[in-house]
Structure formats: structure tokens, C-alpha cells
From TrEMBL:
Gene3D superfamilies: Carboxypeptidase-like, regulatory domain
One matching Pfam family: CarbopepD_reg_2
InterPro entries noted in UniProt: CarboxyPept-like_regulatory, DUF5686
Name the UniProt record assigns to this protein: CarboxypepD_reg-like domain-containing protein
Record keywords: Signal
Domain of life per record: Bacteria
SUPFAM superfamilies linked to this entry: Carboxypeptidase regulatory domain-like
Taxonomic source organism: Flavobacterium xanthum
Signal sequence interval, chain numbering: 1-18
């Protein structure tokens, strides 16, 4: 019975809606996957699936010529007479027989070099032919997981909504899209998604949009997180060796040169594989190239294989990309991921210029009913037939989705999970109503992740309660969260309680109302320059007391929303009562004879005097964030911002303290900040973070309200980049209530320099050069210079960094080594 069921699925996926269909195989009858098939002298085509099946719609009946193109096989042009549809056409392809006697292999006169030089010389002319076009676009993406464990960190992962079988293997993602696209090089895009389908979700929208499919080898570099060097880039000979392996003649009597692309240095951001160049026009005919994970600093990625095929139109004499595939293999701990993206471009219309305002900040728009297309639509229009596995996945996942989203099923699952047991008083408890989409949770008393140590509270831990309602989050972006956190410090023997309310109104302008209140301990520097994890280790192991705390009792209300494209405004009014705190414990695991410093950052050896007097005031905060050139994607459920990396982000802030118990605590504070990443092609990225500010009427304000700068006295870094920290600056040494200017810049070569240094290139790391400066009126300028290596580690785990730092303030201040442990971010 199962065999008949699969046969029916196969027949359904290979239905009678297509106008022309068939199977492509080799001479032995083996199916050939991803063969490019197109109507001669048009950009109407498709590709075969993994089982060699294909189907597509012809523009008209009568005499037609259909071209079958597959690398390594002779291109076939088949003349057919179509009187009725559908038309069946099965093809057996013959392997290309290459005559190597025409290819002269000579170290002094390598023919591949002349071909590549010609391709480079004609790059501009060839790419200009496809500078502007309209086209139809189809994409399909599938991801599979193999050998997934039953649990990760003690938590069951289940079958991922029916994706995995008992061995932890199965399709975890399958989706398709149809789009209408308008594109102008280098990066102007307008895309309208007309159809979208996601396996296992009747309301889902696929993320397989055209925006992520443009890989143009006529450019000098291709962006894969790191700028990869094109085999026909201006500087390609610095990175590649080439070998002309063979030539063959295509269906239009063009000579095609098959050139092997060989990396000169293993650790460089380079491709390996083959590029096919058309003789005389020197246009790209096809690419078949591998991208190794370590070359783009993605260690969990094994390899990506990118294939592109181009077709020729005699009327406009343009070689245009008609199919593209990207195949991915990755994994760790014995778990394997495989993925495949297939793209089909058809019905090109090449134009000289677009109408004004064709391209706006809206890159992608998904039509309202794009996810409501039925199976008849997909069977009639899908250019690549589904495989039996894909057809089975759609039917099975859609069936599972209906069952698992039914009220009966959700109630049964909730009933099982909502059962209360006395042990959950310690471990935590969650009550969930999936039908009404709300939940209530209690964190328990064994929240070990929150356990930390400081000299004011000693050991302390958190617990809490949370109510969440997400009934309209998917459709309208509305959700509500109400939570409370309980923190208990053993040395103080004190419980502190805070509460929070958040309500987001939509996914269009992200209007959000929030309220907070309660009692808590806060660091003098609100940016929390030392984390709980690092402070706990530093205190218990080395008896350092870097975290300086005060007691805050407050109630605040705030509101934020996007007020224009790329402009977000956040306003908050906050009543605060501040009280100084003192050390309550001298406990440590080691260095017991040493003394902790006091909790007063202004007088570390004064254990009696507080850093400020108890007082209260009200603060008004306004913050505007401006992303220049902001782009966005529109979906029926909301608007999703896409930051334009060509431009910086600007922050403008104003803080005013009013209604204090004494006038001296009131002040005005203006501040601004600019962040920017300058992409230097394949030469790396230069990050920049500039801050400046000015206090007014602030001569006698509390030390809490000073501008504090993010120092580091632990020699441990836990962020991926050091663009917001001085790594040798004592935490409160340069705090100010006047004007200030702060600059951080960091250059990451992305391997451009380090890959060329013998021995060091074996590390497959990146070189980091940094400079940091701070200027305040009452202190000499403080500067730091750094040099380091990032992306260090073992095997696939590259989460370490090491930097040498020198600091200057009124001459040489000191030097040291900072060890970056980026995985500590996970623990926070």
C-alpha cells in the first residue's frame, strides 16, 4: 500500500498541467539532475530535479527547438512539432568527448591564462549587457538534518513538527516562491512575491527571495560574509592558477573553454572548481565552484557548491543566467546538515533605463494572498518538478500541521504539559493555552543560570513569573508580556522585586509601550561594563571587586516607534530613588588573606563613606536612531527593516533630570553617537564607533549620573568586537559630568593579510588592529592601540581571540594581553 501511495504522490507532482515534460538521463538510463532546459532564443526555461524530471510551459505551439545543457555532456538541441499539449519529451544525453590534442599544456605558454585575461578585459562590456532587466524568478529551498540527538543540553528537541524520524533524520525546511523582479546593477532591486509556499505551514511565507540570490562573477568580489575573489576579478592572478582542461562546441557553434580554477593559497577567500568561458565573446557560459567553510570563516560549514548556467539569445546577443543552484553541507558533533537552493530566471526583458521611482526603499513586497495559492496553481506553474521526497514532505507536513494546530490536539498537549508536580516548585512551571495563545510561567528556585556573586549581595539568584499573550503576533505583530523578577542576596538577606509590562501594537511601525518598576541593584555604569559571570569568577578566584552597585527604586513608562523610514524614536520618563550600598561579605574561594576594595568607585579604600547621598529625581530620556538609506521588506503581517550597509547609523539623545529633592541633582545631557562598518572589498572591514556629549548645569550631580566609560580590568573580553570598550581603562577613572569625546575603531582583515604570512596562515584566523581614544576636560587624553588575532580555536570551534594592548595617558600607561572568550555571551 505504501508503494502505491508514493506512486500517487509522484504522479501528482509530475502532473498534466505542464505543457512540455519529460525525463533526462545519460546513455545508461541514469537520471541526470539539474540539467538546464530552455526554449531556443528565449529566456524561457527550467532545470531537471534530482530524479531527472522536468516540466515547463512553452510560449506557443508549432515548431519549436528545445535545448538541453548539462556540464560534461554534449548540449542537445531538439526540434519538435507541438500540435497538442501536454507534450512529452524524454532525452538521453551523451557525455562530451574532449580532444586534448588541441589543448597545448605548456608552463611557459598556458592557454588558460590568455583566456582568463580576455575574460577580464571584456568583463565590463559583458556585464553591461545585463545591467538592467525585468524577469520572472522562481526559487526552492530545502534543508535536511541527519543524526540529530534526542536531547540538546538536557532539553528534548522532539521531531520538529514532524520533520524528523526516529533516527533524527528528515527535511526540516522546504519552501518555494514565485516573484516578479526588476534589477539594476549593482544593487537596485524591486521584487514582488506573487506566490509563496512553506511545507507544514498554511500561513507561512518563504524567505527564498531574489535578494539573496545575486552572485555575479563579473564583479571583483562576491559576498559570502567574506568577500570572495571572482576567478575573473582584476586581481585574480594573485589568487588563482588556471588550467584549460578541454573545449567543446555548443548548439550555436560557440567554442566553450572549460577552465579549472585552482587556489594558490589554501586559506584565502577563493573558489575552486570550474568556470566555462565562451571563445571570442569571453562571456561566462557556466560556473561550477566550491566554497570551503573555513575560507569564509564559517567553521561549521563544510562546503558550498555554486552552479550557474547561462543561455544565449541570438536576437539580442546576450548571455543571461537562467538557472542557479547552491548546495550546502555542514555539521558538528556527528550532526549533518544538507541544503539545496534552486533558482530559475525566465522571461527576461533587458532595458536601457527604468522609469523614475522604480526603485524605492521597499526591496521586497509579498502580495496579500501569496501564501493562499492552491496545489493546482503550483502543479501548473512550478518550473522544477517536485521529487517524491518533496511531494511526500508537503503532504505529510501539511497534514501534521492541520492536526497539531487543531484545538483538540493543542488542548491535549497543553493538558499534559500543564500538569503540576511538587518538584516544579524548585525547577519551574509553565501553564500554556496554545489555542488562545497565552502562557504563564514560573522560573523556580533552582535557576542556576542566574546564580552570581558580588560583595554587596554575596551569592544571589533570580526567580520570577511571566505572562505572555501572542494571539495576534503572527498576523498583526501584536503581543503582550507582563513579568516580575525576584532577586535574593544571601549576604544582605534581602529580596528585591521588579516588574515589567510590554505591549507591541503592530509590525508596521513597531509601536511599543513599556512600563517598569520595583527595587533592584544597578551598576554605576548603566552599560554594565563587567558581566555577572566575569565578576563572579574575578571575585571568588582573585578577590577583585570591580562591580560597583547602588540600590535603585524606580517606576518608569516609555514608548517607542518608527516615525519615518529608518527613524526610530524612543521616549521614557522615569522616577528614581537612589540609595548607596556597602560591602556585606568578605568571602572568596582563594586569596582569602587579601581584602576587597570598597563599593565606592571614588574611594576604593574608604569603607565608610558612600559615593553619593540618598536622593530622588525624575528623568526624561529621548533617543532617536537614524539608519540612513534604510531599506525594508513588506509582508502582509508587517514591515521588516533592512539596514543599508553603505551608510552609518546615527543616534541623537537627550537626558534631563528634574523634580529632584535637591536642585543640585538636576541637569541636562546631550549626546550623539555614530556607528559604521566600512567594507573594504576583500581587504576586510573597518568598524567605527564615535560618541560625544555635553552636560549642562551638572556641577554637583550624583556620581551615578556622570558619563561612565566602558573599561576592563579583568583581561577578559567577551564580545565579538571591541568597538565599545577600553581594554585597559579602570572602570571609573575617567568618568565626567562635563563634555566628552570617545572613539573606537577596529580593522579586521578577514584574512587578507594573515593569509599571506607563512605559519600564521595555518591558524586560519584574522588580524585585528584597533585604536581607541577618550577625551574629557579634567583628564589627559587616554588612548589605546591593539593588535590581535581573532577566529582562534580548535577544529570547528573558533570562538577565541587574543589581543596585545598598549595604553597611553600623559605618556605610556601600561600594556597587557586580553583574552577574548566570545562564548561567554551565551551564558549571560
Amino acid at each position: 500500500m505504501k508503494k502505491y501511495y508514493l506512486l500517487l504522490l509522484f504522479l501528482a507532482s509530475f502532473g498534466s498541467h505542464a505543457q512540455i515534460k519529460g525525463t533526462v538521463s545519460d546513455e545508461k538510463g541514469n537520471p541526470l539532475p539539474f540539467v538546464t532546459i530552455f526554449q531556443e532564443d528565449t529566456y524561457n526555461g527550467t532545470t531537471s530535479n534530482e530524479q531527472g524530471n522536468y516540466e515547463f510551459n512553452l510560449n506557443k505551439k508549432g515548431k519549436q527547438s528545445v535545448v538541453f545543457q548539462f556540464l560534461g555532456f554534449k548540449t542537445q538541441k531538439v526540434a519538435i512539432q507541438i500540435d497538442k499539449l501536454p507534450y512529452s519529451l524524454n532525452i538521453k544525453m551523451i557525455e562530451e568527448s574532449f580532444s586534448l590534442n588541441e589543448v597545448i599544456i605548456n608552463k611557459k605558454n598556458n592557454p588558460a591564462l590568455a583566456i582568463i585575461k580576455s575574460a577580464i578585459a571584456r568583463r565590463k562590456q559583458n556585464t553591461e549587457k545585463t545591467n538592467r532587466f525585468n524577469a520572472d524568478f522562481y526559487s526552492r529551498g530545502i534543508f535536511k538534518l541527519k543524526n540529530a540527538p534526542k536531547k540538546i543540553l538536557g532539553q528534548k528537541i522532539g521531531d520538529l513538527d514532524g520533520a524528523l524520524d526516529s533516527t533524527g533524520t528528515g527535511i526540516i525546511s522546504l519552501s518555494e516562491t514565485f516573484s516578479k523582479i526588476a534589477f539594476e546593477k549593482p544593487n537596485n532591486l524591486k521584487e514582488v512575491v506573487t506566490a509563496s509556499k512553506v511545507s507544514g505551514s498554511n500561513n507561512g511565507y518563504s524567505y527564498n527571495t531574489a535578494r539573496s540570490s545575486f552572485y555575479d562573477f563579473y564583479d571583483n568580489t562576491i559576498d559570502f560574509g567574506i568577500q570572495m575573489i571572482s576567478p575573473i576579478a582584476n586581481n585574480a592572478f594573485n589568487y588563482y592558477n588556471y588550467k584549460l582542461e578541454s573545449t567543446f562546441i555548443d548548439e550555436n557553434a560557440n567554442m566553450i573553454n572549460k577552465i579549472k580554477v585552482i587556489a594558490k593559497r589554501d586559506s584565502e577567500p577563493v573558489f575552486e572548481g570550474y568556470i566555462y568561458i565562451v571563445e571570442d565573446s569571453w562571456a561566462i557560459y557556466a560556473v561550477d565552484l566550491d566554497i570551503k567553510g573555513y575560507r569564509i570563516k564559517e567553521e561549521f560549514l563544510d562546503v558550498m557548491t555554486l552552479k550557474q548556467n547561462f543561455s544565449y539569445n541570438k536576437s539580442n546577443k546576450i548571455w543571461a543566467k537562467n538557472t542557479q543552484s547552491l548546495e550546502i553541507t555542514a555539521g558538528a558533533f556527528g550532526i549533518k546538515f544538507t541544503g539545496k537552493y534552486n533558482y530559475v530566471y525566465s522571461n527576461y526583458e533587458f532595458i536601457n533605463a527604468f522609469a523614475p521611482k522604480t526603485f524605492t526603499n521597499e526591496i521586497t513586497r509579498i502580495e496579500i494572498n501569496a501564501n493562499k495559492k492552491d496545489s493546482l496553481f503550483w502543479n501548473a506553474n512550478r518550473p522544477i518538478p517536485l521529487t517524491i521526497e518533496e511531494s511526500t514532505d508537503y503532504v505529510r507536513k501539511d497534514s501534521i500541521y492541520k492536526v497539531r494546530n487543531s484545538e483538540k490536539y493543542l488542548d491535549s498537549i497543553d493538558s499534559k504539559g500543564n500538569k503540576f508536580k511538587p518538584l516544579k516548585l524548585l525547577t519551574g512551571y509553565t501553564y500554556k493555552n496554545s489555542t488562545k495563545k497565552h502562557s504563564f510561567s514560573y522560573e523556580g528556585l533552582l535557576n542556576l543560570g542566574s546564580l552570581s556573586f558580588n560583595t554587596v549581595q554575596g551569592y544571589n539568584f533570580d526567580s520570577g513569573f511571566r505572562y505572555t499573550n501572542w494571539k495576534n503576533q503572527e498576523s498583526k505583530g501584536i503581543y503582550t508580556s507582563i513579568s516580575t523578577k525576584l532577586n535574593y542576596g544571601f549576604a544582605e538577606d534581602r529580596l528585591r522585586v521588579t516588574g515589567q509590562f510590554i505591549h507591541r501594537f503592530n509590525n508596521q511601525n513597531y509601536a511599543t509601550l513599556y512600563m517598569t518598576g520595583g527595587s533592584s541593584v544597578k551598576q554605576f555604569n548603566p552599560n554594565e561594563p563587567i558581566s555577572k559571570v566575569i565578576n563572579t569568577i574575578s571575585s571568588l578566584a582573585f578577590k577583585n571587586n570591580f562591580m560597583k552597585l547602588y540600590n535603585l527604586e524606580s517606576v518608569a513608562i516609555g514608548y517607542s516607534q518608527d516615525i519615518a523610514n529608518g527613524v526610530n524614536l524612543n521616549g521614557k520618563i522615569d522616577y528614581q530613588q537612589r540609595k548607596p550600598l556597602f560591602n556585606n561579605t568578605d568571602f572568596s574561594l582563594f586569596s582569602k588573606a587579601d581584602l576587597y576594595t570598597s563599593n565606592n568607585p571614588l574611594a576604593p579604600n574608604d569603607f565608610a563613606s558612600p559615593a553619593f547621598e540618598k536622593h530622588h529625581l525624575t528623568k526624561i530620556n529621548l533617543l532617536a536612531r537614524i539608519n540612513f538609506g534604510n531599506k525594508y521588506s513588506s509582508r502582509p503581517g508587517g514591515k521588516f527593516n533592512i539596514r543599508n550597509e553603505k551608510y552609518p547609523t546615527l543616534y541623537l539623545g537627550y537626558e534631563k533630570a528634574i523634580a529632584a529633592n535637591e536642585k543640585k541633582y538636576e541637569f541636562d545631557h546631550f549626546n550623539t553617537r555614530i556607528t559604521y562598518d566600512l567594507i573594504l572589498g576583500n581587504k576586510g572591514v573597518l568598524g567605527l564607533n564615535l560618541k560625544a556629549g555635553k552636560f549642562l548645569n551638572a556641577d554637583n550631580i550624583a556620581f551615578i549620573d556622570y558619563k561612565h566609560f566602558n573599561g576592563n580590568q579583568t583581561h577578559i573580553g567577551q564580545t565579538a568586537r571591541y568597538l565599545n570598550v577600553f581594554n585597559l581603562l579602570p572602570y571609573y577613572s575617567n568618568s565626567t559630568n562635563d563634555s566628552y569625546f570617545e572613539a573606537h575603531t577596529e580593522y579586521n582583515d578577514k584574512g587578507y593579510i594573515i593569509n599571506k604570512i607563512p605559519l600564521l596562515n595555518k591558524l586560519k584566523s584574522t588580524l585585528i588592529l584597533g585604536a581607541h581614544a577618550l577625551s574629557t576636560p579634567n583628564n589627559k587624553p587616554y588612548t589605546e592601540v591593539t593588535v590581535g588575532l581573532d577566529n582562534l580555536g580548535f577544529g570547528k570551534f573558533k570562538m577565541l581571540r587574543v589581543d596585545y594592548v598598549r595604553s597611553y595617558q600623559n605618556g605610556f600607561q601600561g600594556d597587557g594581553v586580553v583574552f577574548g572568550l566570545k562564548f561567554l555571551n551565551i551564558l549571560e
